[in-house]
Amino acid sequence: MRHECYFCHIRTIEKLIDKFKPDEKVAANFIFSVHKLIESNWERSNPQLATEIHRMARIHLSNTNLYAEEKLEANDILLKEYPYWKTIVNESENPFFTAA
Hints:
By secondary structure, the chain is an all-alpha fold. The protein is built from five helices and no strands.
């Protein structure tokens, strides 16, 4: 793990705890479990650690879809833009290339 990425992992934990507001014991267990993970796996890549941290979050916070609200919000934004982009793609010389 790159040392500067440590703080991003910690901020992720903090944001998830702020978002889901688990009780104090659950929050502490989650926090210290992640610290143990990082301490004993610091040689792993950041994507590997992030994957494991999010797996732990789903378990500790009893939530299988940590970012459901954000996904719905992003989908709503994109669906509003869909008619515009559909026209652009369909009217282009090469719709497949334009869409890609």
